[in-house]
Amino acid sequence: MTKTGMIDFRGVNKWFGALNVLRDITLSVEPREVVVVCGPSGSGKSTLIRCINGLETIRDGDLVVDGQRLGDPATNMTRLRTEIGFVFQSFNLYPHKTALENVTLAPIHVRKIPRAEAEQAGRELLAKVGLADKVDAYPAQLSGGQQQRVAIARCLGMRPKIMLFDEPTSALDPEMISEVLDVMVAVAEEGMTMMVVTHEMGFARKVAQRVVFMDAGAIVESGTPDEFFSHPKTDRSRAFLSKILRH
Amino acid sequence: MIWQQVQSLAGSYPLALRGLGMTVVLSLISLVLGTLLGFGLGILRTGGNRLISAAIGAWVDLIRGTPFLVQIFLIFFILPELGIELDAFTAGIIALTNLAACFICEIVAAGIRSVPTGQVEAALASGLSRSQRMRQVVLPQAMRIVLPPLVGQYVLLIKDSSVVSAIGLTDLTRVGWLVVQRVPNGLLVFFLVGLGYFIVCYPLIMLARRLEQRMGAAHGEVQL
User: What are the GO cellular component annotations (chain A) (predicted)?
Assistant: First the structure.
C-alpha cells in the first residue's frame, strides 16, 4: 500500500437500505490539514465523518485512517478510535460524571494513565478551554457552549492524531457559538488534523485549508475557502451558499 | 377460647421464627443470585448477538407465562428423573432464582435500552471496550431507570417464595399450615403469617417509593 494521507477515502460507497448515502467518495486529508465539510442536510456529510471512526461502516471502496484500513481484520478498531477524537452535535457528555471525570475517563481506563496524572492533565485541559472553575460541575449544570467545550477537552485528553467535529455548534444558542469556535481555532492552530462538518463560514475562512461541498451523498466541489466562497464552480454550491449567506 | 388459642400459638413461636428465617434466607439467597444472573441476562439480551438475545427472550417469556407452582414442581419432580438429586431447599433456590432472574432481566434490559445511543457512541468514540462502556457509561445511567422497579420486584418475589411450601420446605407459609392443624383458627394463624411477610416486605416497599421519588426529581444526580 502506498503511503498516503492521514485519512484516505478511495471510491467509498455506503447505502442505508436503498438510499445511496455516500457515492463514490474519494478524498485525502493530509496530516495537520483542516478540512471543512458542508452541504445541505441529508447530503451525507455527517455519515462521511462517522465512517472515519467506525460509527458507520462502509459498503465498498477503501477507507484508510492513520495507515490502517477500516474493515480489515488486522485493524483494531477500538485501538484506532483512541487516536480519533469525535465531537458530537449533541455533546453526549456522560451526565452521571463531572466535567473532570468526563475528561479523565478514557485516559484512565483506556490509556491506563495513573489517576492523579490524568486528573492533573484534565484540569489543565479544562483550563485551556476556559472552564477551570467548572471541573466539578455536572453536565446538567453547564450551558450548551460549556458542555461542548468539555466535550472537546474530553477528546483532547486522549491526545488524538485526528479530531472530527459533527456540526459542533448547530445545537447551540447563537451567543455560545463563538466560545466553541474559539476553542476549535486554537486546536487547529496547534496543528491538529481536523475534519469539521459545519456551516460556520467564518471558521472555515480562518483555519480551513480546504472546503468540501457535498450534495446527495457525493462530493460536488472541493477547494480553498476563498475559491469556494468567492467563486463556487457549480450551480448546486452557488444555490447552497446563497441560502446560508443570505442573512 | 381465643385466649387459649393465643397462648397455644405463643408456644409455637420457635417454629414460626424458623419459618420466617427460612423465608428470609431463601429469599435473600435467591434474590442475590437472581439479581446477578438477571443483570447478566439483561446485558446479553441487549447485546449484539441476536441468537443469544432471542434465546433469552424465549426463556423469559416461558417463565413469565407459566405459574411458579408449576415451575417448582417441574424442577423438584423432573430433575431427579434425569438423575439430578435435589433436596427441597436447593430446588426452591433454583426455582426462585430462575424466576427472579427472568423478571430482573427484563427490567435491566429496559433500563439499558433507555440510555441514549449518543452515550454509547461517545464511549465507543473514545475507545472504551465493551465491558468498560457497560460499567462506566451504560449501567450507571440505566440504574436510574432500573432501581425502583427492581426493588418493587423484590417484594413480589419474596411473596412468591411462599410457593416453596408446596414441596415441603418449612417456610413461613408452611409453618402456618402446620400450626393451623393444632390451633384451629385459620384467621388468626394466617393473619400472623401475613404479618410476617409484611414485616419483611414493608421496608422494601418504602425503599422503592423513596427511590422512585429520587429518580423522578428532574435531573437529580444519583450517586451509587
Answer: plasma membrane
Interface of A with B (CB under 8 A): 53-55, 78-79, 81-82, 84-86, 88, 90, 92-96, 105-106, 109-110, 138, 140, 154-155, 158
Q: What is the pLDDT of residue B222?
A: 46
List of domains in chain B: 2-213 (1.10.3720.10)
- pLDDT tens, residue by residue, A89-136: 999 999 999 999 999 999 999 999 999 999 999 999 999 999 999 999
Q: Which of B153, B175, B157 is nearest to B165 (CA)?
A: B175
Closest approach of B138 to chain A, Cα-based (Å): 9
Cβ–Cβ < 8 Å for A79, B127? yes
Confidence of residue A1 (pLDDT cuts 50, 70, 90): very low
Q: Which CATH superfamily is domain A7-245 in?
A: P-loop containing nucleotide triphosphate hydrolases (3.40.50.300)
Q: Provide the mean pLDDT of chain B.
A: 90
pLDDT band at B103 (very low <50, low <70, confident <90, very high): very high
Q: Which sequence spans correspond to the domains of chain A? A: 7-245
**Sequence-distant (≥ 6) Cβ neighbours of residue A114 within 8 angstroms:** A108
Residues of B in contact with A55 (CB under 8 A): 121, 124-125
Chain A hits for B125, Cβ within 8 Å: 53, 55, 81, 84-86
Task: Please report the number of interchain residue pairs, chain A to chain B, with beta-carbon separation below 8 angstroms.
Answer: 67
Q: How far is CA A115 from the centre of its chain?
A: 27
